[in-house]
Amino acid sequence: MADMKGTGMTVQNGTALITGASSGIGAVYADRLAKRGHDLILVARDRARLDALALRLAAETGRTIDVLAADLADRTQLARVEARLASDTRLDLLVNNAGLALRGSLLADDAAAVERMLAVNVTAATLLARGAAVAFLSRGRGAVITISSALALAPALFDPGYAATKAHLLALSQGLAAQLEPSGIRVQAVLPGMVRTELWQRSGKDPHALPPDRVMAADDLVDAALVGFDRGETVTIPSLADETQWQAAESARACLAPGLSRRDPALRYRNA
Ligand SMILES: NC(=O)c1ccc[n+]([C@@H]2O[C@H](COP(=O)([O-])OP(=O)(O)OC[C@H]3O[C@@H](n4cnc5c(N)ncnc54)[C@H](OP(=O)(O)O)[C@@H]3O)[C@@H](O)[C@H]2O)c1
Questions:
Q1: pLDDT band of 12, cuts 50, 70, 90
Q2: Which listed residue, 31, 34, 52, 108, has the most CB atoms within 10 A of its CB?
Q3: pLDDT at residue 51 above 50?
């Protein structure tokens, strides 16, 4: 993706499909990618908001902005988005962003609410990443950006149900990156800390109660994530000041690999 930001010029890129584009982080991606020269397909449930964003961005950038209203928790509507990924040969970027948190928590909410979160955060995100990967491999180009969360690395700091969905997306992205990057398909997982968006109100939490010095603006988050994308990162943690901490954690994890599958249990697990 050519970055002409700051030059006052835009270049023609392929088409990006952004899920959860009606608000928050997804709406900022839509703005930034249109300004980088991408045509867009905006996906979310709220058609009126998507239409308004599409109109504004088309007027400001001259790009073609399509709207595909879909509830990603509904298997039939999700299939329409998967079909678009497969059939639109100009598509070469998926921003897998739609997601939600529970109003209460894994233990406080009912099973149906947990299932709805899993349907969007896990099932839809996984099937869309899969669909994009298959399509991009056949086109020989493309990238999948997935919005995970810093909670993927710190599941005890928040609701474990939500954190687990985000850990799933980190594992998915790292595994896909290993498989796809030799073919030139880029994969990036973005791990935001707390971001000022509607996610907090939607899940019944008071965003004003959050410590202000720990909450990032959605504009800053997306701009930083795109710098990480342009740097070729597989995992981008926009808040983390010292990137050697992440590199050290990954090196430590890689050291485990040779011992993770053996014929014999480790000595400490053998009966005396
Ligand atoms: N805010 C944070 O602190 C934070 C931190 C780390 C990661 N994240 C992640 O960032 C991503 C974006 O969230 P956000 O913070 O920008 O919150 P947001 O403003 O609430 O945006 C969520 C987006 O997802 C869409 N969405 C929700 N349920 C959907 C469904 N069933 N089908 C289709 N679209 C659906 C919403 O659109 P409609 O309502 O129109 O469908 C909306 O566009 C999420 O994956 C979230 O987990 C957020």
A1: low
A2: 34
A3: yes
Report the catalytic residues. Answer: 162
24 lines ligand 1 (CB under 6 A): yes
Q: State in Å: Cα 148 to ligand 1 middle.
A: 11
Indicate whether 189 pLDDT > 70.
yes
Mutation choice for ligand 1 from 17, 22, 78, 95, CB with most ligand atoms inside 8 A:
22
Q: For every residue of the chain, which 3-state class applies, written as one string? A: CCCCCCCCCCCCCCEEEEECCCCHHHHHHHHHHHHCCCEEEEEECCHHHHHHHHHHHHHHHCCCEEEEECCCCCHHHHHHHHHHHHHCCCEEEEEECCCCCCCCCCCCCCHHHHHHHHHHHHHHHHHHHHHHHHHHHHHCCCEEEEECCHHHCCHHHCCHHHHHHHHHHHHHHHHHHHHHHHHCCEEEEECCCEEECCHHHHCCCCHHHCCHHHEEEHHHHHHHHHHHHHCCCCEECCCCCCHHHHHHHHHHHHHHHHHCCCCCCCHHHCCC
For the whole model, what pTM was predicted? Answer: 0.95
